[in-house]
Amino acid sequence: MFENLSEKLENIFKKLKGRGILTEENVNASLKEIRMALLEADVNFKVAKDFIEDVRVRAVGKDVLESITPGQQIVKIVHDRLVELMGGVSANIKFGSRIPSVIMLVGLQGCGKTTTAAKLALLLSKERKKVCLVSADVYRPAAIEQLAVLGKQIKAGVFENKNLKDPVEICSQAVEDARKNGYEVLIIDTAGRLHIDNPLMEELQKIKNKVNPAEIIYVADAMTGQDAVNVGVKFNEMIGIDGVIMTKMDGDARGGSALSLKSVIGKPVKFVGVGEKIDNLEIFHPERMASRILGMGDILSLVEKAQANIDKQTALELEKSIRKNNFSLEDFRNQLTQIKKMGSLKDILGMIPGLGKMKALKDLEPDDKELVKITAIIDSMTKEERLDYLIIDGRRRKRIALGSGTSVQDVNRLLKNYVEIRKMMKKFNKKDGIKSLMRNFPF
To answer: pTM score, two decimals?
Structure first.
């Protein structure tokens, strides 16, 4: 997400912070570059113009230009303005007082509404909500069956009545059925079109009038850029929306639509889809996202991912192993399994402050397939080999490579990296060990 924009802003701020004294001319030149970076990231033209003008007013003041660290001050101004641009604070779903609370998802065909409906249901179920799903898409082949399969996968309720063909009647009966069965939330997956037309809007308006949803959420495909914003404007004008879910954010290196939506439509982005897996839907935090755009990391999200995915007992056992200087290949494999649950390596590294600026990792493109290969190699070892790597001689390495479908070179590389990790772990146990490790990190 925002990869291209982050890289350009990082280069601009590097030049700014490298100057001991800043003049108004320096600031204006940098703001011109920032404006170009925003436009290249597909940010709405008017939004980019207003953003730059607002930053200019805040940045050319005496307090900033004559401060000890004017470059850092401008970075902070841009950060704060980015947070405001994306809504300021996280926007939660308003469930209302009626039971079930109806959440109506709208959007064009192909934006990912059906998958998003299931992802949202899973996210709400983790908040102890009893959720039911219903498909009002009677036009797309297998749309109802797709939602039923996804609902079963996440163990959510799914309303189905194959005798009903009218979307309005389907939604009305789904509400009654959800109420009878004690569901707190009903998520409606509405039909989409390739473009906005009157029949679509009339149908959505009828559903809205019939079920009186607590929230109407526009599902926008981030990959379509400003088209997603323009379509959102029309949905808001014609039926009214309460918020936005951005899908396919992991595949959009620009991110301009996410930066434009709040300013153009006046409705907040509430969630973002960051992958194809059913649990790859995250709450949209403007402040955290602004920090990630500016290369400051996102430690809070990283901690939340770790808490949600890393087994506490496994973590305690690892801590004991490190303290006893007994970090084995078995421990290594267990940690890789935990990391895989947290998402892609690239996203994890992006959440760690300053890591993207390290020379050793600047051009690193973490390959998640490498984790699978490493796990396969360790799984092909005997328990004795995993606990004592020193017994793995040439003959054993050939056997391990054959068993894991890899090469002896792959096995050698793994063992070499593992030895380096053991050395690093050993430093943690020494006095001031963490301080000595941190000296190698330029942040």
So the answer is: 0.69
Q: Name every residue whose Cβ is closer than 8 Å to that of residue 298 and which is 6 or more positions away in sequence.
A: 288, 289, 291, 292, 350, 351
Kindly write down the DSSP assignment for every residue of 395-418, as one continuous string.
Answer: HHHHHHHHHHT--HHHHHHHHHHH
Q: What is the mean pLDDT of residues 204-231?
A: 91
Structure tokens, 15 = 């030049």
Bridge partners, 187 (sequence order): 103, 133
CATH architecture observed for domain 3-85: Up-down Bundle (1.20)
Domain extent listing, the chain = 3-85, 101-295, 300-438
Q: What is the pLDDT, as a whole number, of residue 71?
A: 73
Domain 300-438, CATH class in plain words: mainly alpha
Q: How far is CA 312 from CA 5, 300, 303, 317, in A?
A: 37, 18, 13, 9
| pLDDT (0 to 100) of residue 328 | 83
Superfamily of domain 101-295: P-loop containing nucleotide triphosphate hydrolases (3.40.50.300)
**pLDDT over 60 at 18, yes or no:** yes
Q: What is the distance between the terminal CA atoms of the chain, rounded to a whole angstrom? A: 22
Residue 318 pLDDT more than 70? Answer: no
- Asked if the bond preceding 100 is cis, omega within 30° of 0, the reply is yes
User: pLDDT-derived band of residue 348, with 50, 70 and 90 as boundaries?
Assistant: low
